[in-house]
Design a protein that fits this description.
Blueprint (H helix, E strand, L loop, with lengths): L2 H6 L3 E7 L3 H4 L4 E3 L9 E5 L5 E8 L7 E4 L1 H7 L6 E6 L7 E10 L9 E4 H14 L3 E3 L3 E6 L2 E12 L4 E2 L2 E5 L6 E6 L5 E4 L25
Parallel strand pairs: 1-5, 2-4, 7-14, 8-15
Antiparallel strand pairs: 1-6, 2-5, 3-4, 3-6, 7-11, 9-13, 10-11, 12-13
C-alpha cells in the first residue's frame, strides 16, 4: 500500500500495534511505516464501534508495513486493542486552524497526585508550541497528550477548541495547531494539586461559594 493508493481509495485497513518506542510515544502521534504514508498527515481512525478519532501520523521504520503504532494512552482513548483491524482515512486539516486550545493538566502517575507543584504556563506554551509545530499536530476534544515538564510526566486533555471551521469528528470539535495563530491556555484538573501561574492559565471557578440565584433577603443581608 502506498500513500497515493491510501489517499485515492478512501478508507484503508490497518492493524493496531504498540508504539515502537517510548521516544516515539512522546511525539503524541500514531506511528506508520513510510511505505504506507509517504508524508506525515492527519487521519480519521474508525475503531469498529462506530466511533471515529482524529490522529496525527509520523512515519518510522520501526513499525511494520500495514500496521499503525499507538501508545497506551492513545489505545485507551480510542478503545483499541493490539492486533485489532481498523479503518483509516486521510483527513485534510489545512483549513481547520484552531484559534484557541484549552488543555486541562494533571499528573500522569498516580503517586504524584498529592504532590503540590507550580508550573509557569508561559514557559509551558513556549515548550509545547514547539512540540505541536514540529509534528504538525491536530487536536480533538477530549484527546489526551503525554508531555513532560521539569522531568515530570503530565497528561494534557483537550477541553475546548475554538475554530472558524467547526470541523467535527463524532460530534467533537477538531483543529490544527498553527504557530502564531493558535492561542494555548491551561487549567489544572479538578482536585489536582498542580498550581498554575503565568498569563496562559484559566483560573478555577470557586463553584458553590455564592449561588447567583440565592435569596439574600432570607438571611437579612440582601
Amino acid at each position: 500500500m502506498n500513500m497515493k493508493a491510501f489517499g485515492s481509495h478512501g478508507a484503508s485497513e490497518f492493524s493496531v500495534a504498540k508504539c515502537p518506542s517510548n521516544t516515539l510515544s512522546m511525539t503524541n502521534s500514531i506511528i506508520a511505516n513510510y511505505s504506507d504514508f509517504k508524508n506525515e498527515s492527519h487521519v480519521i481512525v474508525e475503531n469498529g464501534r462506530n466511533q471515529k478519532f482524529l490522529f496525527t501520523v509520523k512515519t518510522d521504520d520501526g513499525i511494520q508495513q500495514g500496521s499503525l503504532g499507538f501508545s497506551g494512552i492513545q489505545r485507551k482513548w480510542a478503545y483499541l486493542g493490539i492486533g485489532q483491524k481498523i479503518r483509516v482515512q486521510a483527513c485534510k486539516m489545512s483549513d481547520a486552524i484552531a484559534q484557541e486550545v484549552v488543555f486541562e493538566i494533571d499528573f500522569f502517575r498516580r503517586q504524584q497526585a498529592k504532590t503540590k507543584i507550580n508550573f509557569n504556563t508561559d514557559e509551558m506554551v513556549d515548550i509545547y508550541s514547539r512540540h505541536f509545530r514540529e509534528f504538525n499536530h491536530s487536536f480533538m476534544e477530549d484527546q489526551e497528550f503525554l508531555v513532560t515538564m521539569n522531568d515530570i510526566h503530565l497528561i494534557l486533555t483537550v477541553k475546548e477548541i475554538k475554530t472558524k471551521s467547526a470541523m467535527q469528528v463524532n460530534g467533537r470539535l477538531t483543529g490544527l495547531f498553527s504557530l502564531g495563530e493558535t492561542n494555548v491556555m491551561f487549567s489544572s484538573a479538578p482536585e489536582s494539586s498542580i498550581l498554575l501561574g503565568g498569563k496562559h492559565r484559566i483560573r478555577k471557578q470557586n463553584a458553590g461559594i455564592i449561588n447567583p440565584d440565592f435569596d439574600f433577603q432570607r438571611l437579612g443581608i440582601g
